[in-house]
Amino acid sequence: MILDLYYQTGQFAKKASVTIRTLRYYDQIGLLSPSHHTKTGHRLYTDHDLFRLEQILALKYLGFPLSEIKTVLDEGPQDIKQALALQKRMVKEKLQQMRLLLSTIEHAEHLLSDGQLRWKSIIQLIQAVQMSNQHGDLDWRKYYSEEAAKKVEERQKTYTAEEAARDQLRWEKVIATFKQAYAQQLPFDHPTVKEAAQEWQQLIYEFTQGDPAIFSGLKKTYEEGVFSLPYSEDEGNYINRALEYHQQTKDGRG
């Protein structure tokens, strides 16, 4: 009679498509305990237990950790609604990260040269993407004033993964142009150097929006070696002199 009302552990596991080991673990942590035990200590599960297990598996699929699943199921529908809202936001953030990763991979494909990967450039690309997408490993705020850091954070809220990858590719191109110009020792008034300088200054302006405090913070991050620069010291000196030359020309001092 009791087998008509209860599932033995093996039957229950098979019906729910989980392992017996999983059921035992869920019992151990108090997530899903059988409704009944036989006199010999064997677990017996009901249809109500099956429904709870289905809820557990559904929430687990949505990405909830087991500790949160227990709280959600024990505390009721309102908490489930709130938990799902939180999980929805987390999923959206994860999707944005995955879109950024996809853009990174696509842009890395553009860095192929004669069938060989330019690893240094790709590493720089990945580093920049990580820097734009994480807040824990590096406290970049310490290089900015409090007001400037708030402005940067506000701007980051609307700065999409696609825009980050697009701008990193722009940096890749302008740096590659400068490196080639240095190798050829092009004069600063050469059209190629002028165009590269204008693009560099445009990228800086788009980040700082002309705010001196943000520019000052950005300058500190480079001066203190926060970023690994994708060019040599000599190339960097050439770039700085070219930028200074075109700034003076722009200001009418050249």
Automatic annotation (TrEMBL):
Domain HTH merR-type: from-to ranges: 6-75
Alphabetized Gene3D superfamilies for the sequence: 1.10.1660.10
Alphabetized SMART domains for the sequence: HTH_MERR
InterPro entries: DNA-bd_dom_put_sf, MerR-type_HTH_dom, MerR_fam, TipAS_dom
Tagged with keyword DNA-binding: yes
UniProt keyword annotations, A-Z: DNA-binding
Protein's recorded name: MerR family transcriptional regulator
